[in-house]
Every structure is written in C-alpha cells, then in structure tokens.
Amino acid sequence: MVDPFADQGVIRRLLNETTTWAFVGLADNPEREVYTQARLLQQRGKRIIPVHPSAAAVLGERGYAALADVPDPPDVVGVYRRAEFAGAAVDEAIAAGAGAVWLPLEVIDEAAARRARDAGLDVVMDRCPAVEWALRR
C-alpha cells in the first residue's frame, strides 16, 4: 500500500526547492531532536525559524512564540510536538499560509494531515528529514 504522506516526489521537492523552514517546538536545547534537524537543514542552506512559546533565538535565528507571529509564511513547517498536539500546529501552519507541513518520525495525525492536504499544503508524515536527505543522493 502506498503511503499518501510519504510521496518521494514531495519529499525531494521540499528538501531541494524550499528555502524557509519553521520548526514548531524548536528551543535552544541541543539535546532535542528538533534542534538536530534544524541545524542539519540550516547547514544545508535552509533558513530556519524557531517557533516556541519562549520565543528564544536558536542557531542564530530569531524565535517566535507562535506561527502566527512569523512575518512571512514559511515554505515548510516542521511539527516537532507530540502527536496529540500535532493537529493544532498543523492548523496553525494552514492559517499561517505555509506551503507544506512535515511531521517527523512517530508524529502521526492522519486527520490533521488530511486537513493540510485539503487546504492545498504538501504533507510529509512519519519521516525524518535527515534520513530522507541521505536517501536522496
């Protein structure tokens, strides 16, 4: 069965053609997976936008308390929240005008993914950007 939220064409396009990724849940804690993923994409030329209630700067980028506070819509919103909170973050990404949402490994909310897709966003779910980056070679 084909996973509609793991389309390799969409994954490649998001990794290759986007420039701005907002990371919901990104705080200045190098021990967290979201920090590792944001740093990796930043090292590969993406502009990252930390989105966390503390609104702290992370990896040299200004932080925002909520997606609604980000001045320009990001190309991709990485939703690094537990699955039970992912739907609200996806809804915020839709409202913010994001082009796509990416839910990492083990963050699965099919209803939220369908809402995003129905709103015209690209959706990747239950995939790791670092793993997908390595596989795209």
TrEMBL record:
The organism's place on the tree of life at top rank: Bacteria
Residues annotated as domain CoA-binding: 14-107
Record-given protein name: CoA-binding protein
